Amino acid sequence: NPSLEVVAAWIAQKNRSFFKHIINTKPEAPVLFGDPSLLGFDQKKELLTAYAEKRKTRSYRRTDLSAEQAKKFAHPRLGDHIGDLLAKYPTAHQVRSDLLMIAEQCHWNRLNEVSLSIVFSAEEENHTKYRAIRILGQLASIEQNQQLLDYCMANFNSLSDDLIGALIDLVYPELMTVDQLIEIVGSKNRFDHTNVLSYSISKKYPQKSKSEDLPILFRFFLNLSAASQKPTPSIRWRDDALFAVLKELVLKFTESNLTI
């Protein structure tokens, strides 16, 4: 019962003995419904340790931990402890995703390194990789972004569309060329449903592209649209996205005085 968990979290913040009890029985209550900003460093460590242990076998589902709640754990010394927990629970996918969200708020000096290793790991689940990519979008160096580009180009046929979309958002057009973008987008039908990649194709890439690349993109999407099959309810979004791309490109041509 969420309302009872809110009350339990509030009491735990006021009463040390009850705090000990709640982290041994239902640590998710103060994690998800309490105010961790009121806790000291040692209490935050205790709470996260208990939370990770309690949820280590939980299969992944959409996280209950909000970004706003994760911010309340911020502490400059908490990052190393989170690193220890990530190492201790390599297959606790729900926990790992939540711990990464919290680590992002702690300005942990190893966050880039750990996030990169998560992206490259064959054992990591997609949702944790996705969070790691988003973290790297804020913190990665040019060298790390180049590593991500190389990984993307070597593995795009086996990666999910959401991961591909997140990676392209990170490196296009600063490092990824328009030819590489076209190689990925044209590699298979990636337009069957709405996701990060399909959204970016219709909304972001035309706006982000360099002016000299617009004619190349225009011809590519025009040909792709012409080759598309008769729309059905399951793939109609694909054609909507293609026309949205063409519309954006035409606007770019007008603004840039380019010729096709």
Give me a quick take on this structure.
The protein has 260 residues and is mostly helical. It is built from 16 helices and no strands.
Q: Helix share of residues?
A: 55-70%
Quick check: average pLDDT?
A: 85
Instruction: Give the topology string: H per helix, E per strand.
Output: HHHHHHHHHHHHHHHH
* Morphology: elongated
Secondary-structure content class: mainly alpha
The count of helical stretches stands at 16
Beta fraction: under 5%
> How many beta strands in the DSSP annotation?
0
Give the oligomeric state of the chains in this entry, treating copies of one chain as homo and distinct chains as hetero: single chain
Describe this structure in words.
With 260 residues, the chain is an all-alpha fold. It contains 16 helices and no strands. α4 runs parallel beside α6, α6 runs antiparallel to α7 and α7 packs parallel to α9.
Set down the secondary structure blueprint.
Layout: H1 2-14, H2 16-25, H3 28-33, H4 41-54, H5 67-71, H6 78-88, H7 93-103, H8 111-120, H9 126-139, H10 142-155, H11 161-171, H12 178-185, H13 196-203, H14 205-208, H15 214-227, H16 236-256
Descriptors:
single chain, 260 residues, mainly alpha, 16 helices, 67% helix
